[in-house]
Amino acid sequence: MASTLEQLAAFIADTDFEQLPPSLVEQAKRHLLDTFGASLAGTDSAIWRDCLALVSEEGGRALVSVWGGEQQVSPRQAAWLNGVAAHMYELDDTGGCDHSGAVVIPALLAALPLASHPVDGRALIAAMIVGYDVGRRVLEACGGYSAHNGAGWHSTASCGVFGAAAAVCNLLQLEPEKCASALGIAASFSGGLWGFIHDGSHTKKLHAARAAEGGVQAALLAQRGINGPSAVFEAKWGGFLQTLAPETQQPDALTADLGSVWKLARCSIKPYAACRGTHSAIDALGILLSQHPVNVEKIERIVVGLNPFLLEMCGGRELHSLASAQMSLPYALAARALYGSAELASYDDAKRLHPQIDALMARIVLVIDEQQSRDDEPWVRLETQQGEQWQHHVAVPSGAPANPLSLDALLAKYRSLAGRVLPLEQVMQLEAICLELEEVADVREVVSLLQPTA
What we know:
By secondary structure, the protein is an alpha+beta fold. The protein has helices spanning about 5-15, 20-40, 45-60, 75-85, 100-110, 120-140, 145-150, 155-160, 160-170, 175-190, 205-225, 240-245, 280-290, 310-315, 320-325, 330-340, 350, 355-360, 405-420, 425-435, 445-450, and strands spanning about 65, 70-75, 300-305, 365-370, 380-385, 390-395.
């Protein structure tokens, strides 16, 4: 009987477009477009420009275009830079490894020049879906999001590197033995800690990038015959699960319903520029304010009932760092109440540091609800100075598969973000080609539209 690693490797090597359900293909195209929007906006940031400067100083073989810019860099550099951009503003998709789009898609497009022949849209979609699938399966094998991230690992990095490696292996059509080696190598490239949560440091912005880069490197090393450990998922000393998830590991999740249950189908597209843990509460407050219009000055308190895990992750109130603000549930609610949204513009310095925000955040109270599990969404209660109280709970946040964004809402998000960097005509061209991607003969046509000079 084939080992877990052998089964995963065969899945990576053998999956092609014809096996994919049409609904999954449609979802993949939307996630691709969403990732491009988030990434292009991310190139309009100081952190990304510093990363670009570092890469420019390093030099390298100019093979791959940098999204949102005119430069060309090496495949590994491109995966890293475009991964930084994709995760920069917390607008990339979630529910996979966790942020699969920011890992898998930069890795795939970085590897395009290394393919032996032009890659068509169908091949890109298949490789993308394989990457999402494997990255999520590794996270589930670690015990799931709450267990793995609760232990201090940022799964976008620690599990995402497997997804990136798998996607690139599929794209380059590597045989199963080399796909297995790539996963083994990726295991040693895994990392990424939640330490940034305590001081708003920038490392979270680098995690998707490092996973994308590591996945590309793992696949290229395996392609050349460098092998990885075969017992990477076995219950042995030095194995991935035994090391990173010794108490929570569920290795059967790696292959359960492999090829019939597709993990992209559970992924979400984010409507807000904030940690996904804040979204249900933003939704709930928005519903309350639409049902009971209240001037901000008349709000006595906004009370949120949440679980300890969410409080630890999103209970911070430090706003001087954008990274901290985007992880702050109190700020997300204050922005929704004061500015009418928690979109990217609501996180600008002037809005984030406005005195009215401080005054409103002082009236936002987070309380532990002992009835909630780590995976439960919070409830929100709006209290007015007149003694009125209204409470609401959104069990499934907007953008989730069971509560999806409409196509119009997705396109509005994409256009607002991509339009920060690209001219409108080019924004619309990129949108059109992504939505018909399975008809594209050479996806280099897509890549050319990610540069402002196209």
